[in-house]
UniProtKB/TrEMBL annotation:
All residue ranges annotated as the Ig-like domain in the record: 40-135
Gene from which the chain derives: Dscam2_1
Pfam families given in the database record: Ig_3
UniProt xrefs under Gene3D superfamilies: Immunoglobulins
Name this protein carries in UniProt: Down syndrome cell adhesion molecule-like protein Dscam2
């Protein structure tokens, strides 16, 4: 038996095929089976640009739904997984990426001037957000004498 689920998320069409063995056959014959499982989809996709001041920090949302509930991971633009960096950047349980306030001397180009992507995965598939361009910095004041 083959179960085929299609789901549209933005401009991406996800098509997942699954073959049920005998132990899953009864579940697959259930009228609600097609509605019981869903690949990940965004309920709040991250914006494509975040600009913030070092004294305020920023929170980049990435909220997803699916059955089973998808896990969210943040990656760099090259799809490498992000580690949490205490005091500077971490991901939350709700899928958001948090940039904490930082002192000017703590600025790091690889963190505060980088491109990120939110990836959501469950047993029915994975989706990736568009790129999120992050720019965090300090305010500079110039005094001109004329």
């Amino acid at each position: 038996m083959k179960i085929e689920c299609c789901q549209r998320s933005g401009n991406v069409l996800l098509k997942i095929k699954m073959f049920c063995n005998k132990s899953l056959l009864a579940l697959a014959q259930n009228e609600n089976c097609a509605h019981s499982f869903r690949g990940p989809s965004f309920t709040k996709e991250p914006p494509n640009k975040i600009v913030f001041h070092n004294s305020s920090g920023a929170i980049v949302p990435c909220h997803v739904t699916g059955v089973p509930q998808p896990t969210v991971q943040w990656t760099k633009s090259d799809w490498t997984r992000l580690p949490n960096i205490p005091g500077l950047r971490h991901s939350r349980q709700d899928g958001s990426l948090v940039f904490q306030p930082f002192r000017a001397e703590e600025y790091r180009q690889d963190i505060h001037g980088a491109v990120y992507r939110c990836i959501a995965t469950n047993s029915f598939g994975s989706i990736g957000s568009t790129e999120v361009h992050v720019r965090g910095g300090t305010a500079m004041f110039f005094i001109m004498f004329i």
